[in-house]
């Protein structure tokens, strides 16, 4: 039967319906490319193109607890259960950097770049030129440890240039990687590689901005669910569960029963105010840390190579001492051996050993091993260690100059005294490298060259014993190379004349440590590294102290249960560009961003608000009206349609909210149907909520009488013939959403298509 009504057109086009090998627990679209990163339940990371072509799969070997992209899409940050944050190259998944910022699971990652856009690049003061490339060739790479294949070191690969690009942040827009763990600690890293601050929400003093009397609160038993930096880097919104109590409880009457879900607003304006200074310090310090890794690995490689060579030597000659003791005189093995070389009679066992092992051919075989190790050490020094030490000296000189600009850099903790000490230690290390090279060259020349110039012979020649004496002088009786490569409490023997000259040079200035000649190369490196840690810890501590809590927004109550329940609450924090009447006191030229916070109200909430989604906006700006008697933010409660419950949600571009809803059924998780709905947030009838001076009220309770009921018929909805599970991955740049069905399938939908042009493809 024909009708005049046109067929109903579905609002979203299904682009792909693909199977997945394992259920997905995290998924994020690349902000710049058509790439989707997914984490499976068995903690594998998969990277797919939009056409579902898989590019690579990696397995970190530990449980993955969070995921986020670098703002330029060239690297992906992965939070692990043991507190490690690993950065991987988007091209091939190779490990670029591994940071141990936390001691427990990293549950939330947010990588945000400075939102300022200046049309005239000539006045862009945030661009910092690194002058090192003017005077030095590219920085050396980490040398390979003998016996390891590429990638085993866990640092970077020789064939990769992405690590250099990650470290070379001269022309990058300033960005901050923020990470939160399940114990309440939040860490900040500039460019994702240089730690610059750390706070714990348990230690925060939480003020009540509109209280008539100064009142502060603290969170206990708190667990972070989400962290989100604002576009201007001036504020951090923290979604967490915990119990809110008075900072100082004077009486039982003041105890609060505020266990629930809260939203904290932290002041991180130091990142905006001092971004140019922080950019320059992070540029130098992060590259110095890379070069320190080069030196550390170089010393390890050199120590292993020399140890292996000396093992070959002693394996050959240790039996000589036992033979001399058993068949020789009462003198030491060294003295007895030299007398034997002078023509004394030997016992048959010793004579046999001399003929078989200390003939010219036998000595040459051992000397080739030692000589080869010596030359390998020289290559490591010249190609890796020495260039790294030289560039470190230059970069420390740059930091030394910055530290003297006290009006700009003292405020971020760049201490001139500590930087001067670290600069001196880097110069002394370079002097130690030169000294080590002289000793190594002397050993290689005296031990090996003379022996290699002789013709091989199976007999111990009468007057060739001088070569053996030289050989044993450096290796059998003493090892001049080994002390330089190991941490030793024994001072290196140094001529008093050289020590006296160094003490005289101290009076001319430039350095104050005149005892470095008595230290080994490894010990000098240890002291230099310690001085760097002390110098770079000061900015870290200074920035950490400048980040404070400005406001708290109690959202809804939770039952007295483990705080981990908050991890299962769908939530999203996004900053949209739009007109805002309340402007932050730290407003950037790229002003007009307003925060949207959306979350599902937990089903076990003690309030009467059931099966609702809460959305607030303007929390960041609500403090700008604090001079008035009352200030307000805007919020609304959306009631999920009957028969459905929210699985996940995501804030989309242009103020849109994407909801993923499942049918409520008593059957198994994989049964039933679901739907995806888009709600235009900026068109919702938000209600102004007055900010009370008393915190012991749940703000959303004021919206009970103004709940907006969502209707499947009136909203932009697409039915899905599968039961779905979290996560919901939405790409604002591509205009697509990836939905994961409970039966291990991935469904990709086009969100931006015009409804009139979309046909039903299911």
UniProtKB/TrEMBL annotation:
- The answer on whether this UniProt entry bears the keyword Acyltransferase reads no
Q: What name does this protein carry?
A: Anaphase-promoting complex subunit 4
Q: Which Pfam families match?
A: ANAPC4 (PF12896), ANAPC4_WD40 (PF12894)
Claim: Cell cycle is one of the keywords in the record: yes
Organism name: Hibiscus syriacus
What's a single GO BP term from this record? Answer: anaphase-promoting complex-dependent catabolic process
Q: Which UniProt keywords apply?
A: Cell cycle, Cell division, Mitosis, Ubl conjugation pathway
Identify the GO cellular component terms for this protein.
Answer: anaphase-promoting complex; nuclear periphery
Q: Residue ranges of the Anaphase-promoting complex subunit 4 long domain?
A: 262-446
Domain Anaphase-promoting complex subunit 4-like WD40 span(s) in chain numbering: 28-113
